[in-house]
Amino acid sequence: MLEKERFLAIKKLARDIREDNKKLFKSFKKMPFDEAVENKNSFIKSVIENMNIAFSDGEQGREEKQMFRANILIPDDKEFYESYTEDKNIRNLMNKYAVSIEDIMSKITELNIYSKYLDEQESEEKPTFVDEMIKISPKEAESLLDEIDNLSSVMEDLDLESAPKESKPELLKPENKPTVETDVEEDSFDDITSAVSNFVNKFENMQSEMDAKDEKIRKLQLEIEKLDQISNDASKEKEEINSELSNLKEEVSKYRTENEKLERENENLKAKLAKSSEILNKIYQSISKK
To answer: In whole angstroms, what is the distance from residue 49 CA to residue 18 CA?
Structure first.
């Protein structure tokens, strides 16, 4: 768990970055779900690389990065709290904010665990996110856990090797909200918090695996492009050679025709020469006898 000063510093930095990029995030709202998620991922990756933010090492660093990311994508805690209060369907929240499931789960976990830090900053009394979680009945808690398990199963069934990057699970239909009961045991809340935290960690690992596979696919695509270029160059060279051979064949055909013509003319000359020799010989013999 992060210390209060560290937690608040990360949230403030995330809010400032979101505030400085209002126009950019406004443009994301006009994009389809997959395109918006992809562009947001690229933006956050660029921010982390260019700003050289000093996150902690190990598990704490991973928690800080995920919290930083979730607060850029979902900066308004109160608005998210109200949205979650109205509809606890995870996929509906994913589509509303155009974020991945781990971002939604990270935000829920954050407001569960760190709400006391936020409460200390506010003078007016209001229900906290933890209050809302405690208000749900055991039946609602079971429904929420089932929803998390269902989403987990969907992600596990995805073919990470072949599935296109822009694909996303089919949206669930809105669920009928169960009747709210007034009391719930503390153990139920602890189970929910534990399940949410484990779920976020699981999907962070899956995201790392997907990023590694994406990088491998990118490198393979570059190799394919190189091979395609070599193939295209070879095809062009082959066409040039075939064209040159065709020209040579035409020239050989012309030379052959010309040669045949010269041979015929040579035969005619030989015949004329023989005839001329024969006439001259007769003349010579006629002169000798006289």
So the answer is: 16
